[in-house]
Amino acid sequence: MPTLGIDVGASKVRYVIWEGNQALLDEEVKLPAPGREELGRVFQEISQKIKETKVSTVGVGLPGTVEEEMVTYAPNFPTLLEWDFKPELEKLLNAPVRLFNDAKAFVFAEVQAGAAKGKQNVVGLTLGSGLGGGIVFNGALYLGKGTAGEVGHEIVDLPNRREAEDFASAKFFQKFGKSPDELRQLAEDGDQTAKQAFNEFGKNLGTIIANLVNLLDPEVIVLGGGIAGAYDFFIEETKKAAAGLIVNPNRKNIEIKKAALGNSAGAIGAAILAKI
């Protein structure tokens, strides 16, 4: 029986029906605002879309720290905090529901069916409204006591207590007065200021990746999220910055790959994890 995977973002919700290592349905719904009422309406819309399909279980990826199936920290979607919507969603979809952090669902999908398939030790980074992270060690999702992988909240500027997320997410691009998508379009048209913005972003990301490689020594880093769509505009600077800071000479050319499952990775990962 298929499973339903839902990936909740601050501006959109992606959902897939997953069975036999393939998506039977893969759709996206715009989220007008990151609020409970708006998300509730999206859940209603999804239930109507899949009402003819019986699913065995539902996995939901959420943009925040998930402990004991409750969101306890969500700076980019604060209305999720302490919101126990699981019973209501189970009733709506007529199936058991499990909740996960979205970045952890993302990296698990890429290991199971995407860019890191066959790899045992992987770090996944989601580049979007925030900077999410997930870790796979020895083929299994590593959670520590439950929340390991919060890369975006590493402090990388001690005097100002600024987080990695301030340098490698949509927050970084605010100083340019345009969204990452707008800057990507400008870069595609040859705009030098936009290209320089992505070069600077790439250097920041490379520094963060070097820290991860020095600490965890993964086989591959996988990049997802909306900003990863501009991969070609920042990846060279990312690789160069990482190589300059990785201490092991044999790891300086760490493989840094763009997600193979695209915008569906988080929803696919939630669907796969829901069955485990």
From TrEMBL:
Domain of life (superkingdom): Bacteria
Gene3D superfamilies on file: 3.30.420.40
Family annotation (SUPFAM superfamilies): Actin-like ATPase domain
CDD domains recorded: ASKHA_ATPase_ROK
Family: Belongs to the ROK (NagC/XylR) family.
Protein name: Sugar kinase
Biological source species: candidate division WWE3 bacterium RIFCSPLOWO2_02_FULL_53_10
